[in-house]
Amino acid sequence: MNNTPLATGATLWDRVRGQITARRALFLLLLVGLGLRLWLIAINPIDPSSSSADDGDYYRRAIRLAITGQYLDDSWLIRPPGHIFFFAAWMRIGVLAGDYRLGVLLVKLAEAAAGVAQIALGYGVARRIFRAPWAGVLFAAFLALWYPFVEQPSLLFSELLYSTLFLAHFWLLLRFDEGERKRDLVLSGIFLGLAALTRSPALYSVAFVAMWLLVRQWVRQPSAARGWLMRLLPTATTLRQAALVVGCCLAVVLPWTVRNYIEYRHFIPVDTLGQVNLWLDLDTVDQRNPHIEELRGMPQAERAGYAMAKAREILAEDPLRPLRNFWPTFRHVWKAQFVEDYYLRESFYDRPLRQAAPLGLAGDLMWLVFVGAGLAGLAARPREGWHTRLFTLAWIGYSLFTVVVFHVEPRYLLPFWTLIALYGGGQLAALLGKRPTRPRLDGVLALQAALLVAYAALLVTYRDYPTIIGGGEARERGMRAGDSAFARGDYAQAEQAYAQAQAAQPSFQDAGIQRALAQMAQGKRQEAAATVENIERRTAWLTGLVARGGGPENLERLTYAEDSTGLDVQRWVMRWTKPAPAASVHLGDGRDMGYIAGFAPSESDQRGSYRWMTGRGTVRIPLPQPLAAGSRLVLRLAAPSDTPLTVDFGGSAQTITVAGGQWRTYTLPIPPALEGQQTLAIELRATPFIPWVNNPASNDLRQISVMVSDISAR
């Protein structure tokens, strides 16, 4: 602790700095940031293995790479490979351990570690730019606590790796700026190349590095050293430095470019996302899906060139087309992100926003302050040097322009907010460290004031946030009351509370789904099915399926839901629904949802439907009559080869060997301790295998163990 006496009239900020050093504050932020990320990983139910979004594509390609060593491009577009290799490295451990879920968990933990590294790098970047350790602490606090950064490790997206690699690249440039060490330029170029293999826009920003070096030369070169015209030209030293960064960046990227040329016979530096998305976003919305279908009918290698030619045609006809929706898109950029997700959207889409609301809402307030301070800081005099200021502004402008031209997606804006918040940390540290004085009226102050007024106007005019928050809180009071009543088994009260939430915000689909679940828990199955009839969410359809009793006619949609909902659908249904009492369950017929978890989607052979167990299966069957003395568990099973199967009745386990190559019925005594129980609850465990390992021609990368068709208690 710093025990230096404080001067009379010290500010609160002085007192804080007198009690703790910047390094200790950073250490605490690293711990808090790690803890928050681990907490969100633990509570986030989103499952990338069954997602139809980008995280699902990343999972499927990474698991294939981890198992087979084969990298396959996405069937729709050629995407950057960096994060796929990163994910696959950790998933390989799960494959070797026989548990894919372990691999996914390791990926998330590795991303949490990357998030902690991002916080430390943010501290280093801000400290070097503003020559103030507490500017680094404030920026590190933003990276540690703002919800979009906290959430990233719980999802399998590429943005976290990209932003961490970019910050490492920036930090190394700043190290070079101070120490003139060549190795810092080398490493900076390598990290920029790695960032480009994660998100390709980083590749084209080598121009910003060249600009940074050239402006740095102008700033540092004595005015009398060369004539003014000659001073504008790069020196041999500057050219060598730029060539070193570019060369190291390309040394990382070019092997992938060569791979693309060998694979497709086209020059594709990293990916084909930019060209295709440019065409889709330049044309009208109603043409988007037809264009996608048109491109899907073409060979993968030809899509980017064709899309770019179409984009050039549009631009030749209307050069200002990229700015067609500039103003509404620009306004949308400046939304309060968590407030929008939490209070305005029609669903949480299974994200744990309610649990995270205190952090998320506080984070929006922090974002409000840091962005305002950042705009003021970017308009202030560039004490860090024009080369660094212009580099930052170039990246901010580049990030904003790509979002405005294409489309707004919150994760695409993370580099934009990162750099503005960087200057926010510097400006806040400067303001907090000053004694109150009368500001000097000049052009800089006028520009800062204008930017802050414009920022406030964008916020105030874009949404009626007080009304939105008021209505959202009314809805949340109903949802929280409903969840509480549901948890204690008061389903009638839960239904009433969810109805109140639905009335407060009719567009909020989750309230309707929860209301239907409460109705089903009361046995009001027809009412539950009617409640979710017009809700488009897949969880709503699953609720309706169970309420109506399922059936073979729903199998196709059920399989689609299991493959694309982004949840462990079977566990979700088992947790939230109460299926009808049954003495037996036939797996794979569309009527087994709610009774089972840990099984693959339905399959069938000449004997009927069944499901593969994925290694560990859970069965919970409410029975029409309590278990009597001498009751037996009857299982109809098959396996490719003799496979030991453990049946755990909740502390009492029995192991049988499932005979290979045939369907057989196995009968086990139910332990006497379970007599009188109204629910049959068992866990099935068997060592899984991967079909591809035994037969690469199968292309089946699932982890499966035993086939199960029927489970009953007699």
List the main descriptive attributes of the protein structure presented here:
714 residues, alpha+beta, Jelly Rolls, 2 domains, ten-stranded antiparallel sheet, 10 strands, 59% helix, disordered N terminus
Task: Present the secondary structure layout.
Layout: H1 12-19, H2 22-43, H3 54-68, H4 82-97, H5 100-130, H6 133-145, H7 147-151, H8 159-179, H9 182-196, H10 201-204, H11 206-220, H12 228-231, H13 236-264, H14 273-282, H15 288-296, H16 300-317, H17 326-333, H18 337-344, H19 357-379, H20 386-405, H21 414-432, H22 443-462, H23 465-487, H24 491-504, H25 509-521, H26 525-531, H27 538-547, H28 555-564, H29 569-576, E1 584-586, E2 596-599, E3 603-605, E4 608-622, E5 632-638, E6 643-648, E7 653-658, E8 664-669, E9 679-685, H30 691-694, E10 707-713
Antiparallel strand pairs: 1-10, 2-4, 3-4, 4-9, 4-10, 5-8, 5-10, 6-7, 6-9
Assembly type of the chains comes to single chain
Major β-sheet profile: 10 strands, antiparallel
| Total beta strands | 10
Hey, roughly how much beta strand do the residues contain? 5-15%
Can you give a write-up of this model?
The protein is an alpha+beta fold. It has 2 domains: 12-271 and 325-458, no CATH class; 549-714, Sandwich (Jelly Rolls). Helix content is 59%, strand content 9%. Strands 1, 2, 3, 4, 5, 6, 7, 8, 9 and 10 form a 10-stranded antiparallel sheet that branches. Strand 6 and strand 7 form a beta hairpin. The longest helix is centred in the N-terminal third of the chain and has 31 residues, at 100-130. Mean pLDDT is 91; it is low at 1-9.
